[in-house]
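Final paragraph of the annual report: two paired records, presented back to back.
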Amino acid sequence: MPTSPEPLIEVEQPRDGVTVLRLNRPARLNAMTVELVDALHSELDRLAADNRCRVVVLTGAGRGFCAGLDLGGFGEVPGSEELGPVQSSMMVQTRIATLVQKIRRLPQVFVAAVNGAAAGGGLALVSACDIRIASDSAEFAVSFIRVGFSGCDIGTSWMLPRLVGAGRAHELMLTGRRFDAQEALRIGLLADVVPGEQLLERTDAAIDALLAAPPMSLALTKRGMWLALEMPSLDTAIEMENRQQVLTTATTDQPEAMAAFIERRTPIYENR
């Protein structure tokens, strides 16, 4: 009997409340094709309806995280066959770029476990995640300008300056140069760098800390911390924070979190 093809996104649920999404084109360093992008969209759409999942780990199979667009051929977005080249190109562009918008809008906290090269669209996926941890063998590059496109793509021109500062981000976008995990840590792109064999353990430790928070508190913190980067003033941010605090106080999980903290025990949350 013919064997079924390997899924382009491997999905694991190692424990309650956690989903692992693993990009699975290892022979191409998990470079993006229309099929891989569509598969990732499908998994993100599924997570939007999953109230039990609180943390998502995004990683890659093999020795790469994601090498960006597959320069051997991305493929056609379904529905673009009858369009002109400009219109078809816009469909491709939009289909890829909306991945980072979905990651940012979902209530789950995304942890990037960067196991290898993250370039172009791969770096954009890393930047869209909420916590970023890498193997010491990981490499990064904005890349777009190196293959003739604008260095501003897939949300990078907005996300990267907010993560590493405008001066460094501009240099990386303009040159497209590669930089290693230690530089990524030094400039603030990463929260931590560990030896490759410790990446899973370090990611699990981050998950432990995230799951210690009540579900609504975790989701609102993700939303609030990114919204604060777009707010024009301290007063605006405080108004948002005030409302978040009142909302969490009204849940039954908040007093449970406080009691567990005082009693030094593991909290039991009901997401109510």
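The closing record of the year follows.
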Amino acid sequence: MVISASTRNVSSKSIQYQQSDKEQSVEVCRNGLSGEKPKDLFAELKEIADRNTRTEKKYVTAVISPPKEYSQNLSLNDWAKLAEDYLKKEGIGKDNQYLVHLHQSTDDKHLHIIANRIDYYGKNKVKSHNIGERATGHAEVLSKERNWKTAQEITGEKKAEIKNVLLQEKSQSRSLGDLISRMDKRGYIMQISENSKGLNGARIIPKADINMNPSVLEKVTKQGFKLSDIDPKLKIKEIALGLAKSIGKDRGMSL
């Protein structure tokens, strides 16, 4: 699971964005807020935030993204508990206003949170320093509490499986093109990159991980794993050379 968080100032437009998500946003929980329209909700937040004149950035915004392996089956109550468990770890509770929505217009379901750092008594309840690092730590703890594998564990398992399949198919392949075809049949897209000097890299993408309806972030983020990330010892040039030598030996034996 990935949690990103920061302290900032928000506006009615921030709330409008959280509520919209191409009309597929669903509110999962709130506290201390009664309004429905963005301008009314912001007015309520600001009324409390203004009780503290020392704090500059008066709100916490966070995005919580569980792995797809788990997020597809969560109920709204599960999402609400996930949000509130995170907020509690940041010291945000019944004395703070917060608003939480589930965004589900893409294959990557995730939560958006706006919370008031200032409580009803004018006290700032959340330290700004290292809030992003704390969010990463909270993600690991919340995952373990739910018996979820962490994002790092899931990624590690995927890389190990890709390496295993690649080595299996490499031993059976007669050319780089044959290897690419065999990987495709095993459920992986193998992309080869070249420059003026020849082969210079490869990326392997599990077909199961491809989002048919990606988020804006996913559209600009390369999917899958570079060969060097799967294992630094794997080099596309060496793989291609090894396949060529293998073909040469086979031809020599046939003569």
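The first strand starts at residue 2 and ends at 8. This concludes the annual technical report; the extension proposal builds directly on these records.
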